[in-house]
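note to self — DONT lose this again. spent like an hour looking for the file last time. sequence + predicted structure for the chain T wanted, 960 res
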Amino acid sequence: MGIITQWVKTGLHFEIQQKSSRLMKNLRALVLLCFGLIFAGTIAASEASPDLLTPAERAWLAEHPDIVLGIGEEWAPAVVREAGGRFGGFAFDHLDLLNRKLGTHVRLEAGPWPTVVEKAETGSLAGLTLSAPVEARKTHFLFTQPFHAVQYFIYLRTGQSMPDDGLAGLRGQRVGYLKGILYLRKLLEAHPAVEATPLDSTEALANALLKGDVDAALDSYGLEYWRVSHGVLGFAPMRMLPESQTNLVMSIRKDWPELVAILNKGLAAITREEMAELYRRWFGQDYLSRIAPQVTLTTEEQAWLAEHPVLRVGIDAHWAPMEFVDKTDKPQGISVAYLQRLEKLLGVRIEFAPALTWAEAKQRFDDGRLDLLPAVAITPDRQRSIHFTEPYLSLPAAIFSAAEVAYLGGLSALEGKIVAVVRDEATQDWLRKDWPQLALLPVANTQEALRKVAEGEAFAFVGNLVTTSYYIGQSGLTQIRVAGETPYTYQLGMGVRQDGPILASILQKGLDAIPKSERDAIYHEWISIQYQHHVDYGTLWTVLTLAALALFVIVYWNRRLAHEVNHRRQAEAALTQARDQAEAANRAKSAFLANVSHELRTPLTAVLGFSSLLRGKTLSEKNQGYLEAIHAAGKSLSQLIDDILDLSRIEADKMELRTQPVEPRALLRDLQLMFGQPAAARGLDLRVAVGEAVPPAFLGDEIRLRQILVNLIGNAIKFTEAGHVEVRATGEEAPGTFHLRIAVADTGPGIPPDQQEEIFKLFTQRRGQDPARYGGTGLGLGICRRLAALMGGEIHLASTPGQGSTFSLVVPALTVVNPAPVSEEPATAVENLSFAPARILVADDHAANRRLLVEYLSPYGFEWIEAEDGAQALAHARHYRPALILMDIAMPVLDGLEATRRLKADPATAGIPVIAVTASVTPEQEAEVRTLCEAYLRKPVSQPMLMAALRRFLPSTVYT
């Protein structure tokens, strides 16, 4: 039975010749009967289609049981008022279908469109359906994928003739349209010679056209629906406005991204056939054909097509998925799909030449034996001999090499190497012209090029990313991968000979008539397609024999089916329970770590804070030594807590990078200042160098980049007894991006080869290392490597015992940007600051932490009020109206988050800035904290950190 089921799943098809038609019909009947019985049993045993939603999405729906979307009641046939006042129509039937797909109970509320939009924007409704995703709505809504397209038509009275130039031909005439349709208003504003006449409803628009109050009307198919449903004659849609298609979506309130993901899954599950049935039901049998794209040709173009009803086409037989010939010699691929669409639009017949290589197809084209090439990369050289349409597809060119080859970056890394290219392809032209120093190896096709690389006859292959990736997957050559980028892009257009420019114009009009949605569908169909395989008759007879055998075991199989399904359901229930338990365990782990972090950071804040304050006092040398030991121990404990929490976030896949402009030179200067004194104290020379190729700034997470480098430099200084530590930043530029490499080299003891991978494992240190002397937990390098991976990079180690080690951080494809504007205000020491008098509320349940914050504030003349919990903080804020609030999050009675929510909801206190000062929050809480509060400080907080935050909200003066 497994073989039969597998046969069904793979979807293999056979071309069975008709010589023995009776035998074949009987065999087909046998197979159909067999599978009909099997599927009947399967359907009977299965109560519902598989659930499209995850347990987390089901849980979210359970927490939001009543979801209502709005729709404009004036939009027939999307909304139709039925007998008894109930609403129905296309929108309601579409939502019913969506609910069946998802197992949900989303409802619709119809009303005047402006009222419905206002209710959705204020949160009274969950969102809107059949909504245009205009820029202005992004303030309030997130958008689903488009699911319905609306087109607009020019309506004329019976007997009126349609001007040849469409809307422009209605100059001097009155043209009616519905108020509130932004697209039509903008369109009419672009034709000032036309007298635009806005009307309030579809009925008013129809009556104005019938009575002659307007000469023409612009509307969607809704006006035609009104005409047919009211049995009115006298006008009709005459022409669809070009480029008028508007793709409609569901607009969902911005704080419900979960609902957007859920609805997208349901929309994707609705088939084209199901949508077509909805259109036929509500828009009429001819709706789809009426809105189908049309091509308007000149008299000359029509005459040319009449003389050339057959177009001779040549394709590259080995350029999948762009174009290729399958095992039955049938043309396939993206360009072929476009040609098939053009056949219908232009009324021509496409005749494909036999299987050719690209060079052969190009030669026949040049000889005049072919009329067009459907997928040609446009280059300046080719434009001198070929008429091109505009590009309809862009494919990047990339460098491919053996997997063991390090990332090459750009074409300069190929100098002196043998590089395979497909003969006469655009890549060969580009490289021959721009990179004459490369040793090019022309080959027949992409497959041969990949074989040359796999067998070592070529170092690399340069070709288009999509085609090459396809053949790597098809041939199983997983030892080849993308090794670099190029500045080239295949801009693919259709090409005709110089003596046929009229054909280029015809083809362009045909391509323009294919809507973007259809183009996207063609692309995604062929990029993700699973190609079928031809099966010989031996396999056919084997399968048919097994099918016949299946008839005899079907009864027994059906009896076992119920038991197997029951067993499967029990297993699924157990799996669901295990998954829920695992998710609960992860939640418990996160909560536990958050609590542990809070319990450790809370006393640690006081230890580090008060020791920092004492460091500014005059103490004896002995007491100063004690104080430095306390402070150093506290910093070590703080680092350990940070490492454990980072590890937890990474393992839970909740570590998020915060992208911002990073200035590498400034970053390395800071690190040089930070580590200069510790290096000098050990007698080491700390060297920092930045290569000229390194840009002024690039996009990245500066905090995590700094964390990695601090660990690498700190380790180098800690383990090096004599000599130097060198930090060198280099890299390679690519168009708009940069491949960064920062190497930290030392003259330390080096690391044996058998331990070089182990030291990156968590909780692992170099064997033989003295813990008492060097300390550490074995977390730093493991976390650094994982952070590098999150950035899309790697950390490499090169080390020789007795000669030192080099740790290299490599991050490819960083986006180059301009540096952030330099602040005209220099960094300010806390002793040079002065603040205007202000009252500050300090809310923390630990007295030591409140006292520390008060000690930080007292030198600046602030007045302060203290609160022990969120409830007190709320009451004090309402009574004293402080200028600013320092709010702990984890507090009894009422936590800081809820207290802040209530403060922001009260108009009397909503304007008071709140700075969260907390020991730890979960990732979910942290997101809300950053949304609710004006600033966020993680304990332990230093006095300079606090003063920098206060200066953002309170008037201050800097003394120089």
